[in-house]
């Protein structure tokens, strides 16, 4: 009996990352890894984890499929880290079941909207050095943001200086559309490119015509330079 007890304890301990604490919360497994000086997401998080706290660490990146094996995950706290990059498939495999995702107080300047596709979780994105542009505007349109923290999504950088330091929601409410700015920029770039190609075609046609004219002139001069032949009957 003591042997089975020991085996159970060893089995429980081996299923929990050494830098974390695994416990039960309302009958569901909670994995607590807060303030453990982690620089990356632990690889051996239990598959039946429902609550995962990775806040107050030094994690810098959320790679693709980082939580794919955690099909039961409902709450994920990644706040107060040093996250700068989030891959497009970072939350693949957990998007459908996740209820809350906290990415506040990191170093995130932009996030691919593909990373949030199919994500039904309530998002916290406050207190990051956001670059206000079309991609972030699309995230706000499509994501389910926590209403208590949406006012703290502030423009750290922006295409125009007047937007810097202001809440993104306030800027958008003022009628600014970063996506239309990008569209105009794209249209101008396409116009310049098309004009460049058109100019090249015109230049080629002009050079071709001049070259043919020069060849025709030289051929005419060559024919004139040939000695004339008289008819024998004369």
TrEMBL record:
GO cellular component terms listed in the entry, alphabetical order: plasma membrane
Coiled-coil residues: none
Transmembrane annotation, as ranges: 188-209
Keywords linked to the UniProt accession: Leucine-rich repeat, Membrane, Repeat, Signal, Transmembrane, Transmembrane helix
Signal peptide location: 1-22
Main localisation: membrane
Residues annotated as domain LRRNT: 15-51
Highest taxon listed in the record's lineage: Eukaryota
A Pfam family recorded for this sequence: LRRNT
Membrane topology note: Single-pass membrane protein
Localization, UniProt: Membrane
Family assignment from sequence similarity: Belongs to the LRRC3 family.
Identification of the protein by name: Leucine-rich repeat-containing protein 3
Gene behind the chain: Lrrc3
